[in-house]
Amino acid sequence: MFRAGRGEGYTAAAPIQTGNTILTMKPGLTTKPGLGIDFGGVIMPLTDRTRGPDTQFSGDFLHTPPNPGAVEEIRTLAGTFDGNVWIVSKAGPRMQSLTLDWLRHQDFFRRTGMDETHIRFCRERTDKEPICRDLGITHFVDDRVHIMQILQGTVANLYLFGDKEGNRSAREWITLVDDWPEAAEAILGDLAKLKC
Fold first, then answer.
1. Virtual CA dihedral for 102, 104, 105, 107, nearest 10 degrees?
2. Which residues contact 61 (CB under 8 A, 6 or more apart)?
3. What domains, with CATH codes, occur in the chain?
4. What does the alpha-carbon distance between residue 26 and residue 3 come to, in Å, rounded to a whole number?
5. Are 16 and 84 in contact, with CB atoms under 8 Å apart?
6. Which of 7, 43, 126, 160 has its CA 20 to 30 A from that of 185?
């Protein structure tokens, strides 16, 4: 079923089989493309970042819909990445449980075509880097510039979700996207360049 991080660090990844696509990412490095997606603010909208945790699970949170276009675009990307799409999220035990409740209630994995075992939690944001390295993530979507900085030497294609205007200075080293249709277009464009 779901794999979640335990204690310090994270749960290591099982071997990944994603089809026959093999891309050369760097001289001497051959890998299959992999997509990592943050949860709070990227899949599930934030209610108010200034008041605490990334994603506020309050009230009738199970009925909070995903960000507009998330399900449709992730479904497209899951097919394009031969299923090698992962949720990588910083969350303690309580947030992990609430996240998994929301994903189940939304029937997220069936609706997107994602494998329900393709979720990794970590306790510290810096732990996203070894998770991405271990999973072979080549593309990552997050809503925090800080995460982009952590992943910069590990993940070749970084997409900062939301608030393009407030993050203009990062435009030189990451791709800024406002929403899921724009994110999918950018990811598919970068993936097409890799296949050339």
1. 120
2. 98, 102
3. 23-195 (3.40.50.1000)
4. 30
5. yes
6. 126
Q: How far apart are CA 63 and CA 73, in angstroms?
A: 20
Please say if the pLDDT value at position 65 is more than 70: yes
Confidence band (pLDDT; 50, 70, 90) for 48?
Answer: low
Q: What is the pTM of this model?
A: 0.81
Q: In which element (H, E) is residue 161 found?
A: strand 157-161
Q: How far apart are CA 143 and CA 147, in angstroms?
A: 8
- Classify residue 116 as exposed, middle or buried by CB count within 10 Å of its CB (0-12, 13-18, 19+): middle
Residue-level pLDDT at 168: 66
Q: Are 137 and 36 in contact (CB under 8 A)?
A: yes
Identify which of 153, 128, 23, 36 has the alpha carbon closest to the alpha carbon of residue 84. Answer: 36
27-36 pLDDT tens trace: 333 468 999 9
